[in-house]
Amino acid sequence: MATGPIVRPAAAPTPPVPSGAYAPYPLNPELNSLWETVGAPPANADFAASASSVGDPPINSDFAASAYESGDPPTNHDFSTGTLEGWAATGTVVIDSDPEHGSFARLGSSGVLKTAPFTVTSEAQQLWVEIGFLHTTSTSYVDIYVLRGALFGSETKLRTLYCMNCGWQLAALDLTSYAGESIKFKFKRNGGTIGIDDVRPVVALPGYSASGTVTRENGAEDQVYASIASGGILVSAPFTLTADSQYVQIRMSGLSAASDQVQIHVLSGAGYLTSTQVASTSAIDAWSDARLLLTAWKGQSIRLKITCSYGKVGVDDVGSQLVELQDWTVNGDSRRVEDGQGNVYASTDGILISSPFTLTSDVQQISVRHRLESGIGQSFYPSLLRGPNFSEEVGPSAGIPVTSTVWQTATIDVGAYAGETVRLKLRAYFN
What we know:
Layout: E1 52-54, E2 68-69, E3 88-90, E4 93-98, E5 102-107, E6 112-114, E7 118-119, E8 126-133, E9 140-148, E10 154-163, E11 167-174, E12 182-191, E13 194-203, E14 209-211, E15 214-218, E16 224-229, E17 233-235, E18 239-240, E19 247-254, E20 261-268, E21 274-282, E22 288-292, E23 301-310, E24 312-323, E25 328-330, E26 334-338, E27 344-348, E28 351-354, E29 357-358, E30 365-370, E31 378-386, E32 392-394, E33 400-402, E34 408-413, E35 421-430
Antiparallel strand pairs: 1-24, 2-13, 3-6, 4-5, 5-13, 6-12, 7-12, 8-11, 8-13, 9-10, 9-12, 14-17, 15-16, 16-24, 17-23, 18-23, 19-22, 19-24, 20-21, 20-23, 25-28, 26-27, 28-35, 29-35, 30-34, 31-32, 31-33, 31-35
């Protein structure tokens, strides 16, 4: 039996053992690789999501609800009897008529006219009276008084109105101080010729509390708004701020030639007795939105108190709630801006904080595009919020200068926090 040579299998090769020496070249020694995006940015990082309205504004926020009478007016308040029945008159006071008003009282020399007593209801806001300034060549004057107390012996002058050849105008007189009282009104002609007609107590602005000279007006393009003269106060009905609301808006315009001044307070707490001023500003002579950052009252029922301290202001669309920058927490005046060229960005003079997002394990940097929008020089501070409840803030201690209106890119190193869930904080700072 023939046999061949015995062949034994080769031994397994011994794996190489690292020498411990450095490699002759690092990875990517020429640094010629392009940077690449890793992971997902925070939600709405490009601010593409449009602003949206949330929640419900207070009742009658747009002043669309018409005024209505409250309680009984004085006897023969509109002279429908064709006589002065129910009125007390001295001097030259006669019944006249025209196609627009029908019968009315005409006050001439030394003419004084007093209403019959009437009781002011708790909801009545104003006394409305049609006043005619009827002299065609000179100014007509009328003094208006309220009579109250025992035998109506306490007389207080409320206002002097005057105009030359102005025809009929509606005068509104504050009744809120007389709720529950029986009172009279007195009209005293002080020059020219005065007409008086249709005296009645009304709720002029349903859903609101009003004091001072506050009236419901009709503007251009069928706009209805409230006009508040100096010293006047308008308080909205209660409404609740939603948890996601960022801003509350009030549309305003200055209405006089003066520098019209307005203060806005939030009324909160039990009985809405806690008053906090949230704005004090001038109202420009054009309709624009005043934006209030009311995050401290999220989820609460509040009222808005609007006071005109000088001049005269118009207000409309009171208490509309807005999410301006979706998925961001905002501070200061922060806005979503469309530049008209298809680009969208956020503008802020305060702080923006993103929603949480997770850094990948290989991340090195985060980038932010920025530019100067107004002013001569600013800085902004980018940082990360990390840890439990995102309570720890980390990032560069020095701000990044912003001096050009051309878009630029800033980066911050975040490799030390790779794999963590964080939030991005951007804080604007004016130099």
